[in-house]
Input
Amino acid sequence: MSFKDHIFKNQSPWGGGGKAPGGNGNGSGERTSPPNIDDLIRKAQGKVGKIFPGGKPTGNKPIFLGLLVLIILWGLSGLYRVLPDEQGVVLRFGKFIKTTQPGLNYHIPFPVERVFTPKVTKVNRIDVGFRSASDTGRTSGIGDVSEESLMLTGDENIVDIDYSVFWVIKDAGKFLFNIQSPLETVKAASETAMREVIAKSKIQSILTEGRSKIETEVQEITQGILDEYGSGIQITQVQTQKADPPDQVIDAFRDVQAARADRERSKNEAEAYANDVIPRARGEAEKILQEAEAYKKQVVAAAEGEASRFIAIYTEYSKAKQVTQERMYLETMEKVLADIDKVIIDKNSGSGVVPYLPLPEIKKKKKN
Output
């Protein structure tokens, strides 16, 4: 049974859960035996006889009234109700005419027009790359479909990715008559979109933080393809179930991942050491620069002071050279002889030696 047959199973041309005029009302679409025309005519004649004075109408009036009743009943059979989770699809002689929204609606009765009321709020699911137990007929477990799940990444790796596509009917008319096989169409469109996105992505992003972005892009591309087909289908979600390396290379891939983790750890340790050494080296360099700058300022200031002193002395020397020379001589001798033991001899004295005067010892006693 096809997907459309499953959707419209037990639906009658009059819609509304398979209940047709004269049906038994159990929703199965089966009809009871048609009403007896003679009984309908007699009942109609009885009602008309009560209306017309003088008893029953005569002549061709009974036939006319019977036909009138049948036409009224036939016309009323065009009323149908669309439930909130349905859309009405009206066919005129088998050709799609329009869709109707939930509520009480009317169409030209059968055989001119027919109405189907498919469920449009039901969320349908398609699995790509794997089959669940309900799909495979097994009691448990998930079957992998490698021809659907193996895809080539942008950095020339292979990834085994399983995902599910959830969709609803957006426009029942387009859904019924623009595409022949909705399941295969949605599956093919989503697989095409997934392969396109995976081909632009790197495997590391696919296996870690890039899944949500991939799901969004696949949903947008798939919806675009289905809209171009005029499928009347709305993609509500693309959900990744699994994204792993192929089983044949998964051990080697894990070794690579472990090596990358070791590399990141060594890199972090090196960065931590650099963050410890470099600031201290920069501090030492800044300290040396500041000490050199201070020494420079000290030397320059001392040199400038000596120069200023020399200029001041030279100015005084130029004004009084003799006095300045004697002063400089006396100041120099004072510095030279300050720490020397001295004995003064007067050559003009008779004995040639003056009495001993221990000036240095006196000076030392005064200091003490």
